[in-house]
Structures are given as structure tokens and as C-alpha cells.
Amino acid sequence: MGHDGEESLATSEGEEELANDRRTSPPRDRDDESTIRGVKEEGAGASPKEESSTISQARSNSPETEQEYRPPLPPRPSNFGLLREGSYSPGSSLQRSKNTSRPHLQSTATTALSRTDIHTQSYQDGSRETFAASAQTTPPSKAIAAFGSIKRIKGFSGSEGGDSGSVRSYAPTLETGGDVESLLGEVLGASQESPAWRLHSTQNEAPDPFDSITYEDDETTVDFYREFDEISAVAADGENEEQLLNQWKSKRKHFLILSSAGKPIYNRHGDDNLISGYIGIIQTIISFYEGAHNQLKGFTAAGARFVVMSQGPLYLVAISKLGENDPQLRVQLEALYMQILSTLTLPNLTHMFSNRPSTDLRRPLQGTEPLLSALADTFTRGSPPTLLSALECLTIRKSHRQVINDTLLQTRCETLLYGLIVASGRLVSVVRPRKHSLHPSDLQLIFNMLFEARGVKAGGGENWIPLCLPGFNKNGYLYMYVSFISAYESIGEEEHERVNESGKPDDIAILLISANKESFYDLRKMRDALVDELEANGSMAIVRSAVRRGRPTATDIVPGTVLRHFLYKSRANVQFTMPSYEPSFTTLLARRRLLSLYHALHASVHAKNAHLKVHHCISRESISLAWVTPLFELYCVAGPQASRNALAQSANKVIQWVRKEEERVFIIGGAVSLNSLDRCTIYKKLTPPAARYSEQI
Amino acid sequence: MADSAAAPPKPSSSVKLVLLGEAAVGKSSLVLRFVNNDFQENKEPTIGAAFLTQKSHLPHRTIKFEIWDTAGQERFASLAPMYYRNAQSALVVYDLTKPTSLVKAKHWVAELQRQANPGIVIALVGNKLDLTDENAAASGGASTSEGSDAEGAETPETSGDARKISTKEGRAYAEEEGLLFFETSAKTGVNVQEVFTAIANAIPETQMKGAKGPGAAGAGAGQTALGSERVNLNQRAEGAKEGCAC
């Protein structure tokens, strides 16, 4: 969680490894930071170039001359030498860039982008050649590991420093040695290889392909919209089975969960009877490898990537034709597993299966399917928070947030563990015990439950929900009080709202989490006091208007920019910000296309052996840039006609904007309750892992 | 309100009510119909429990229901005591088209009789009347006290009728255990208001929590306050009072 980002980062070993991996030292980070801040004070004019210099390759001999001279695009086919040089020497070039990062030595954005031309070229000219080049420099197995979005794995595995995961802890377990080509095909040559990309590229002759209109009448568009259609049940005589199976196969993404004994637990599309044959096959394949003590991680068949994760007694399988890579799919499976833990807790789960390995988990999980499906659909649509393992906050002034934090603290009742105010899926404020942060994956589960699945909101009223937050403690339940407040109704109709509001996506939710299952009325009283106070001091109106305003568009943030969209992740805060999807990405398909692009960018810059700091890629649909430093990750996308320079300048403007607005777009610190419960009390108060199912099973 | 003679505001009191029953019998839908006069197809399952309030206007008093709509899934069963502990009334719901749901309902009734407040008013409700053939016919509203209901007693096994539990069977069990009994449809709204009105009428006034300022309700459980005005507890609410969705 962002508000705890700094302390958790500072203590986690991930930090070190991350730094090592980037061959930079922590002091340099500080240096970097201070330089940027210094420049910011000096004046906006100098800073974009300055900042880009800190990441530039500094290969050019004379930055000063290049400053005025914009070099033409290098001739495409002759650049492999550069690529090799680029992947050999990021460390040293960074060192050099550090030396040159003085305000007066301005290297232009062009310099920063020079090496990325190669990637441009690799996109344009075919991935195989490019891959061949990089394979010469690294052993194949490393090359695969390289394409993992490594940090996210750790992010979900219980460490507090969500995004500072260790690369090494993960890499050796990757055993997909045979799949070099397909893996890279997905990442590098997406435009040529992946069916998903083909789907998304059907209009690539159009001048402005991201525009929604372009796709409206497209056949494949219709197809993607059908992705979320329900498959009806098999008729009693099995007559429609064939047709349903075809329907099932046409889905671009599947999630299957089964027990290691082969019992189906969950699948996203169609009923269990329909695909029982497939469940049997996948179980056979997995257990065959398991039997040989050679765990199956994934394989590719018929244009679909299969990723297998085995978690205790469960097998989770993701099948994707959308061009995501293994680590990205693995993160999604991890989230589904966390949802199961959130329903059952780990001791319950293991207890059931150790008593009876053939347990049918569907019954204890009854009612969880909508949550799993909501998660799965979020992943299929594409989800920036999941991709980045970060959280989005509602942008409000720092002083306003401070008032809300203070109000939360003042009204805080004894039994409160965490208190959160969330508006349309974005965090507004949080109060937490001193020693505890909220794990992003836990928040993802909560947000999914409240804002994606309709169950809680549709009921109206207030809710009292027992749930396990696996990132916090996977052994017991916490209890969450939830109350929604409409962003659109005026003050004073509170009673009315409580009853009549049946859930618009823009609602404001008050979440109060306690370890005491009897504390509903306490928390309810606190909620009433909190809302009264927030209404009285005007904070509620501020939040309401911020919600109504929505996200600013990219052009609001950087006037006249070529950028269509960007994602900015602050690594220290484990939070991200992005502009509105409007006006360019209004349709489901356009958004999925955008997210696929982000996935590809993310995969390339997190490739372990690539040591990329900047990744620039040009396709027929867009030009895009990924820029990673120890402080932030920036991914931005512009239309195909935009120039590299314009893109780079816009990227710098975005960085400036975030620096300026940092305390508005991110929650830094959050409210820490003074008399925090210490860990012991919390654990004592947690419901013991009840042997609830023992009598039934 | 109907009794225009009563110039001072009617005494109001709050009643804690808990809904119990197997998953997917329509507990939340009943509440949604009662509170918002609304219905949602394919409603997602409740997670944990939802707390709602709704006022019900009787001739001589106003009752504020504090409703605990619990999730029917097995794994939430261990939390149920917390919800029915201080409840003055309970709605045990089953699905007319699903025999196992009546079995589960009987378990709940037994648990309530064993562990809940001794004076708790329990209503047995068979929901999804719209899926049966006589959904229009049985709209008369029936409590245990009124016996004659000819057309509901026999279950016509015609095509399209999904009914699996006859009115007779439900009523017989309700009479045996001394429960209020209704067959309802949350989808069409048949009998939904009647259930809550009947519960309001069946609760002795001495058991009600005193009238308090809004917002403070629910804070002091077990506190009793006698209404200033005597009302006939057995008076049946007439149709005119119902359907006010304030």
C-alpha cells in the first residue's frame, strides 16, 4: 500500500535486489531525485531535457549539438550492432548519464530514444530477427526469464513492498525452456504473432486506429463483446453440446480451477458438465508432470497460452489468446487463488483437503463464483491496477485529504483496524494501525467485491462481511462494514440514500474493518459520526465533486500533448495514476487494445536481462514509450502520427506534472492511528481458523 | 395516515428482524421488494449480511424494521447467532420449487426456537410463488389463524407449474410450530407487504424498543418502553396501509 510504501520498501530485501538488478546504487537514486527536484525549481524549460538525460544512454558524443539537431530515423535494417551494444551496457551508460546529469549539460530527449529505435525496428521488421540478435547475447533460458514481469509475482506473495519483488527468487523456477519462440512471439512480435493482436489490429490501415468509431462496425469487435456472454446450460439430451463447445472455444480467455484430485471447482465460461472432458485432460497433463517431479508451468497450443499454477491442493489454469505473457497470467491466477483464500482462509482449505482429498470445494465456495468471475472479467478487459500491482487514488488537494484523514482519526472507534474511504474504485483516505499496511492484493479483492461484482451494492443498505485478507493474515477472518453513499445526492438525505441507493459505479464507499465480529454497531455508529463530520466540514462535497469530475484527459494534464493515454506508477507509494480513457478509448475493444499494448511494454521493460530503462515502440497503430527508473514507471501511448520527440517531451511533461501534483494524486503516508493495536491483540481477536466444515465433510 | 383523529404523532418503535433460509431462496429479493419495492433478476448472492431499515405504518403506530438480511451459504451459518440474538422477529424463507429448502427452513426454525429470544415471532415464508400456477389465486394473504384457503390446499400438477411444496404442507408445519405462514413472490410483490405487516402486528408492544431519535436505534438492545397509547395487537392491518414506500 502506498501510504506505507516508504517504510516497507526501505526494509524489504526486494529493494536491494531491485537496485542490484538495475546496477544502480541507492545513493544514486537519491542523487537522481535531488537532481530532478533541483531542476524543477530552476524552471520548467530545462527540466524535461534534464530528466531525460538521467536515463539516456549518453551514447552520443556531443549532446550539445544534438540538442538542436533532431536526427532522422536511423536506417532500419542495419541496427543490430546497436542493439547488442545497448543490451550489454546499460549499467555503464547509466553511470555516464549520471555524470552528465548536470543542469547545464542538456542531452535531448532524442538521445534517450536512440537505442529504442532498435525496438521500433524490431516491431516493424519482424520479431524473429530481433530475437535472434538478443539470443546471441543471452542464454535462452535467461531470455525467457527476462520476459517475466517479475516484480508482480512477489507483489502478491505476502511481502509488504509490493512492487519490489526479487527477480532472482522467481527466475529459476521458470521452466518453459521449450517455448522460447512463442513467448517472444507474444511479447516482441505481437503485431505479427498473436491472434489477440490480430484481432486488435484489424483496422490498422485506418489513420487513427485507437479511435473507437473505427471499430464499431468491425466483425471481430462484435466478437470480443461476446466474450462475456454466458454460455447456456447443456440441454438434457445433450443436443446443443457441440454448439456450446464451439461457443466455449471461441472465448479468448479461460480460467479453470480444479482440485488436484481432478474435481472441478470453478471455470469462467459454461457449466462444469460441458467441459468435464477438458478438466479431465488438463488434470491428467498436470499430474503427469507432477508425477515426474517436473512441475508443468505452461505450454502453448493452438494459439492459446496455457499457464498452470499449483497451489497446495488446487490447480489453477489460465488459457489466454490475448497475448499476455506467463508472469502476467500468473499474477491473475494468484489473484483468483487469493479470492479463494479470502473466502475460506488457508487453514480451512488445507483442513478440508487433508481430511478428504476428494473434497468438492464448490459447496464451501458457494456464492464466491460471482467474485471470481468479476476478477476474471476484469483481467480479460485489462486492468491497470493488476498490471502494475498498484493502487489508484482519488485526486484531491493535500489539505483536503488531510482534513479527511483527521476526521477519520477523530471518529475512529476502539475496535477499528482499518478505515477506508473509497470513491469509484479509487482510494480517498485510509486510517491504519502504525505497524500495518494494507496489501495491494487485499485491496484488489475488496475493490473487486465492492465495485466490480454487483452483489454487495445491489442489496442496498449496509453490509457486514466476514472476509480473510490473505496479504494481512491468511489464517483468520476480519469483518468489514460497508456503506455506500451516492456521489450524486445532496446533503441531508442520508437515510434516504442508505435505503434507496442501489449502486451506481461512482459511489463512495465507507469501509471499516475490524477483527471483532460483534463490532457492527460500533462501526455503524462511527460511520454515522464520520459521515456527519465529513458533510459538516465540506469534505464530502469535495469528494463528490472529485468523483463527478472523473479523471482528467491526457490533454488536460499536458495541454496540446500527443499522448492518448499514460500510466504512471510511483514505485515508492505503490500507487499509480492515469488519465481518463476518454476520448480515445471509450469502447471495450479499444481499451483492451490499449491494455495489451501496456502489457507488452510492461513485459519488455521488466525483462530481467534486458536492463531496459526506456523502451520505445512504433507500430502501425501507435507509438509508445515505457520508461522505468527506480522512482517510477511510465508507460505512454500516442497516435501513430506523433513524432518521437513529441512523445518524449510529453512524457517529460507528465513526469513534471506528477512531481507537481504528487501529493494530490497519491496518498503519501495515510493516517496512522496513534493508539494502534499491536500485532498480538489483532491475532488474538481474529476468529480462530474454525473447523467449521469438519462436521459437514 | 388513515386515522386522522390522532393529532399527536403516532408512537414509533423499532423491531429487529432477521431473515434466514437456504441460499438462493429469495431473502434479499423479499427485502428489496419490501424496502425499495423493486426486483432484480439474477441477483448476486449476499456476502455476509446486509443491514437495512424500513418503516412500516400501522394504524396506531409506526414500526421501524431493522432488517438483517443474512447470506444463505453454509459457511456463514456460524455467524447467524449474532444476527438473531436480540431479534424480536424472524423470517424463515424457503423456495416453493425446491424441497431441500424447506428442510433447511425447518432447521432454522428449530435453531431459533432453541436459541433465540423466547418471545421471537417467526414467519415461515414460501417464496417464488410466481413460478407456480396459482400465483394470482393465493394472493389473499394467509396467516395461521385463518384456515380456509381452498385453492391453495391442493397443488395442481399441471405443466409449467414448478411448485414442489404444497401450500398444505407448509401450512401444516407452520401451524404445528405456531408460526405465521405466507406464500409470497418477491418478483410480483404478492404478499410481501403482508408478511411484514403481520409480523409488526404479532409482536407484543412490550417487546418493542422505545421510540428514539433516528440514528440511535439499535444502540440499546433489550430496552423496553410502553407506548403511550393502547393498540389492539390482534388488529389486522388493512390493505390501505400497505405499499407506502417511505
Automatic annotation (TrEMBL), chain A:
Q: Among its keywords, does the record have Amino-acid biosynthesis?
A: no
Gene Ontology CC annotations of this record: fungal-type vacuole membrane; Mon1-Ccz1 complex; multivesicular body membrane
Locations listed in the record = Endosome, Multivesicular body membrane; Prevacuolar compartment membrane; Vacuole membrane
**Keyword set includes Lyase:** no
Where would I find the FUZ/MON1/HPS1 first Longin domain in this sequence? 253-375
Q: Give UniProt keywords alphabetically.
A: Autophagy, Endosome, Membrane, Protein transport, Transport, Vacuole
Q: Which GO terms describe its biological process?
A: autophagy; protein targeting to vacuole; vesicle-mediated transport
Q: Pfam family of this protein, just one?
A: Fuz_longin_3
The record places domain FUZ/MON1/HPS1 third Longin at: 563-662
Query: Which parts of this chain are annotated as the region Disordered?
Result: 1-117
Record's compositionally biased regions (Basic and acidic residues): 19-52
* Membrane topology label: Peripheral membrane protein
Q: Domain named FUZ/MON1/HPS1 second Longin: which ranges? A: 415-530
Regions of biased composition (Polar residues) lie at 53-64, 89-117
Family matches, as PANTHER family = SAND PROTEIN-RELATED, VACUOLAR FUSION PROTEIN MON1 HOMOLOG
UniProt family annotation: Belongs to the MON1/SAND family.
Tell me, in a sentence or two, what this protein's role is.
Answer: In complex with CCZ1, is required for multiple vacuole delivery pathways including the cytoplasm to vacuole transport (Cvt), autophagy, pexophagy and endocytosis. The MON1-CCZ1 complex acts at the fusion of vesicles with the vacuole, through its regulation of the SNARE complex during the coordinated priming and docking stages of fusion, and particularly at the stage of tethering/docking. Required for multiple vacuole delivery pathways including the cytoplasm to vacuole transport (Cvt), autophagy, pexophagy and endocytosis.
Q: What is this protein called?
A: Vacuolar fusion protein MON1
Query: Source species, please?
Result: Imshaugia aleurites
- Please name the taxonomic classification of the source: Eukaryota, Fungi, Dikarya, Ascomycota, Pezizomycotina
UniProtKB/TrEMBL annotation, chain B:
* UniProt-listed SMART domains: RAB, RAN, RAS, RHO
Q: Name one GO molecular function term.
A: GTPase activity
Could you name the domain of life of the organism this protein comes from? Answer: Eukaryota
Q: What Gene3D superfamilies does this protein map onto?
A: P-loop containing nucleotide triphosphate hydrolases
Q: Which UniProt keywords apply?
A: Nucleotide-binding
Q: Which Pfam families match?
A: Ras
What InterPro entries does its record include?
Answer: P-loop_NTPase, Small_GTP-bd, Small_GTPase
Under SUPFAM superfamilies, the record lists: P-loop containing nucleoside triphosphate hydrolases
In this chain, composition skew of type Low complexity spans 136-147
Q: Where is this region: Disordered?
A: 136-166
NCBIfam families in the record, alphabetically? small_GTP (TIGR00231)
The protein depicted here goes by the name: Uncharacterized protein
Q: Which organism is it from?
A: Imshaugia aleurites
